[in-house]
């Protein structure tokens, strides 16, 4: 590709422009991005000025480049088609034509670009600038030391719109000599803050700034589709003073192969160019296009609302004036801006020094008055100190006259010292977390910038990057809450960021969860059976067919919660003088199994409600801490013997007991709390230690990836995993259930606010619920 050199582009008698560009392309990822400037060759068209484009489409469709270039061509053709119109009128007509073409594209079935189009189109004629924006593309104006975000507030995350309403967000203003316009894809701000971009622009020509920017971006690991165009507006005399030798175009990585340009419009455009159609006919074509678009693919967006946005915190924008009618319109909504020329330079103190002139007599008189005020204030302070001293002295004398007066005085002194030290420490502690206003404002701005960059990352479906940026934004906003000046705004931002982080981190929050069952209501039935002091106590939870079963180890009862009716009942009992229920599990679609102490295994057939002893080899599983039927085997966790015992089902019953760990050398399961099986075996130990075993051997395992804004793992008390579920961990300390994949990578979390001290957890993946027990109550949390 030949290297471009900078040329001065005339915009009117006073202003000329020069341009620098940065482009990138990742062949491994789909989509298309470009930026370009168009300057007409014909003298008659030059009075209409030049056009500037940044177009980014995050769609893998092979037609994406055609859609981008077609959009550019339509705007160019319509803008210069009627030179009798003003530049503003021509620009609005060009946008209307572009909207109609986009509607025609959607009508013919090419819709993947909708919601993935990020574009800036600007027209500069004389000193006027007309600019339209859609999606996450950004436009900034550098004037002096002020960087103005022209596109701030124009993008709404998750926005939906009709194809013929694509290019509506229009702003206008006036340019000044030495203004720099920076238009770019939002991906730029993954890597460069707005403040850093401002510094890189200062004192640099557009080509020099673009080269510096490209050098910085080259250091990043991944650059996807970053397109940046820097345009400087100056005078011929100023540009003649410095020679530009840097290339206008700078590629990050390998240059993108130029997309093939079609001689005509895309094949599915009917009737030639839209610019030849009368306005009435074009409107009709748009209406027909809308009728043919399936509603499930392009939803009806809400009508635009009047919002207030700002160029920067120091330069308020006027209200967006949007013409709302009953019928859809493809005319762009013009957003009237204050003239860009209204931006003032910083205050110069010398201007005020000239206005304030004091002679020597005035200074002497002021000094005399000030001295008198200080003397009066000093006398008042001395009088107050003397009065306090007199009062304290008299009080001390009176206390000493009393019996034990010295001890009383000593106690008073100790109390005063404690009070002084305590208040000092409290004050210091309160101030230690405070930060300066300048640092707080910077932190708040950084948080807002990272939040916006995260929204851009979501457009590119880069959830990991979005989560990283939102986490950084949250930490910055949190620090800004420690300054009174930024506390309110930062607190509001924190709430917004928390919701966004929850969304990208698969976090579901539950407020005021109500129990689905309370087995405590069976208390009266226990009392009527002859034991008036009996109390309901729940064992581990068992879920089968949407119903919840549990055992009562103190009363040898089997309880059931029937999901269809919401009723709880005692469905069976173990009649024994020496055995007590300890554990329960699902054995089959119709049977439950129970383990007792002393060791014995029973099965309960739910169809006949009959309980029978299972004929198992006595073995060494008399210390079972948990049981799991898995495929055709029974597994017993025996932490006391550092072993997991297993039986295999055969027609006659079960085989003899066998150890899971053949050698059992170096295996330490002491203090094991729970275990689960999904092919691999996971064992939960004390202090949040989770061990993973495969084929009887330990496999390295650890949980990771929990987003940093959430609390670190507290105290894990229960574990659940099966063939069709991730690894669920009950973190009772932090009122949540965490989910990880079998490699230990974070998947999701479910946070509840009012379930205190849950004792057991199980998951019904097919039914879509997590079940928790606390006291005599059972709660369930929807997985989706």
From TrEMBL:
Official protein name in the record = PPM-type phosphatase domain-containing protein
Transmembrane spans: 369-396, 408-428
Could you list this entry's UniProt keywords, alphabetically sorted. Answer: Membrane, Transmembrane, Transmembrane helix
- Keyword Membrane in record: yes
Record lineage: Bacteria, Bacteria division Kazan-3B-28
The record's listing under InterPro entries reads:
6-blade_b-propeller_TolB-like, PPM-type-like_dom_sf
Top-rank taxon: Bacteria
């Amino acid at each position: 590709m030949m290297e471009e050199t900078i040329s001065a582009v005339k915009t009117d008698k006073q202003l000329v422009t020069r341009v620098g560009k940065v482009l990138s392309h990742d062949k491994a990822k789909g989509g298309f991005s470009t930026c370009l400037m168009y300057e007409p060759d014909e003298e008659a068209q030059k009075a209409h000025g030049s056009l500037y484009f940044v177009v980014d489409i995050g769609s893998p469709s092979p037609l994406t480049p055609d859609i981008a270039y077609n959009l550019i061509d339509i705007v160019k053709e319509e803008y210069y088609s009627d030179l009798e119109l003003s530049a503003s009128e021509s620009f609005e007509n060009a946008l209307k034509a572009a909207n109609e073409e986009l509607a025609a594209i959607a009508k013919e079935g090419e819709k993947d670009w909708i919601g993935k189009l990020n574009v800036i189109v600007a027209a500069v004629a004389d000193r006027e600038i007309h600019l339209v924006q859609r999606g996450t593309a950004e436009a900034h104006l550098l004037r002096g030391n002020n960087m103005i975000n022209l596109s701030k507030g124009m993008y709404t995350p998750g926005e939906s719109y009709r194809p013929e309403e694509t290019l509506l967000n229009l702003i206008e203003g006036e340019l000044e000599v030495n203004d720099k316009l920076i238009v770019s894809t939002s991906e730029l701000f993954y890597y460069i803050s707005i403040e850093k971009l401002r510094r890189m622009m200062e004192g640099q020509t557009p080509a020099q700034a673009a080269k510096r920017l490209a050098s910085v971006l080259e250091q990043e690991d991944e650059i996807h589709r970053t397109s940046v165009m820097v345009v400087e507006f100056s005078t011929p005399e100023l540009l003649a003073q410095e020679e530009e030798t840097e290339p206008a175009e700078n590629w990050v990585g390998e240059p993108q192969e130029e997309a093939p340009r079609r001689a005509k419009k895309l094949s599915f455009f009917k009737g030639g160019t839209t610019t030849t159609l009368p306005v009435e006919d074009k409107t009709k074509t748009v209406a027909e296009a809308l009728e043919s678009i399936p509603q499930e693919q392009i939803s009806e967006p809400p009508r635009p609302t009047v919002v207030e946005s700002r160029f920067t915190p120091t330069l308020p924008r006027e209200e967006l004036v949007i013409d709302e009618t009953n019928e859809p319109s493809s005319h762009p909504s013009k957003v009237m801006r204050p003239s860009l020329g209204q931006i003032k330079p910083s205050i110069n103190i010398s201007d005020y020094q000239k206005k304030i002139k004091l002679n020597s007599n005035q200074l002497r008189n002021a000094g005399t008055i000030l001295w008198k005020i200080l003397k009066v204030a000093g006398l008042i302070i001395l009088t107050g100190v003397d009065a306090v001293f007199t009062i304290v002295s008299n009080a001390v004398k009176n206390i000493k006259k009393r019996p034990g007066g010295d001890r009383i005085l000593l106690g008073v002194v100790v109390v005063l010292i404690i009070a002084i030290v305590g208040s000092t420490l409290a004050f210091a502690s309160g101030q230690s977390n405070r930060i300066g206003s300048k640092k707080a404002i910077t932190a708040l701005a950084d948080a807002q910038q990272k939040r916006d960059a995260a929204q851009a990352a979501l457009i590119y479906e880069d959830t990991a990057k979005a989560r990283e940026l939102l986490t950084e934004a949250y930490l910055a906003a949190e620090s800004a809450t420690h300054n009174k000046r930024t506390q309110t705004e930062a607190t509001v931002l924190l709430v917004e960021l928390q919701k966004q982080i929850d969304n990208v981190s698969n976090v579901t929050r539950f407020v005021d969860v109500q129990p689905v069952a309370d087995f405590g209501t069976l208390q009266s039935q226990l009392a009527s059976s002859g034991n008036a002091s009996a109390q309901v106590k729940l064992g581990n939870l068992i879920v089968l067919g949407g119903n919840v079963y549990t055992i009562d180890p103190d009363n040898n009862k089997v309880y059931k919660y029937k999901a269809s009716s919401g009723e709880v009942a005692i469905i069976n009992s173990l009649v024994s003088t020496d055995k007590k229920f300890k554990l329960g599990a699902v054995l089959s679609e119709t049977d439950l199994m129970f383990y007792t102490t002393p060791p014995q295994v029973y099965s309960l057939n739910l169809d006949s409600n009959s309980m029978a002893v299972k004929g198992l080899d006595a073995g060494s599983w008399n210390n079972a801490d948990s049981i799991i039927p898995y495929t055709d085997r029974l597994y017993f966790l025996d932490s006391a013997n550092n072993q997991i015992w297993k039986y295999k089902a055969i027609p006659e019953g079960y085989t003899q007991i066998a150890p899971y760990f053949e050698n059992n050398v170096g295996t330490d399961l002491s203090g094991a709390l729970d275990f689960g099986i999904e092919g691999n075996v996971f064992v939960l130990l004390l202090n949040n230690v989770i061990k993973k075993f495969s084929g009887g051997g330990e496999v390295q395992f650890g949980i990771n990836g929990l987003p940093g804004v959430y609390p670190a793992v507290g105290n894990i008390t229960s574990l659940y995993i099966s063939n069709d579920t991730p690894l669920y961990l009950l973190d009772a300390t932090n009122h949540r259930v965490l989910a990880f994949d079998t490699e230990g990578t974070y998947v999701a979390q479910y946070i509840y606010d009012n379930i205190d001290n849950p004792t057991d957890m199980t998951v019904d993946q097919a039914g879509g619920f997590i079940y928790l027990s606390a006291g005599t109550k059972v709660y369930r949390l929807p997985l989706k």
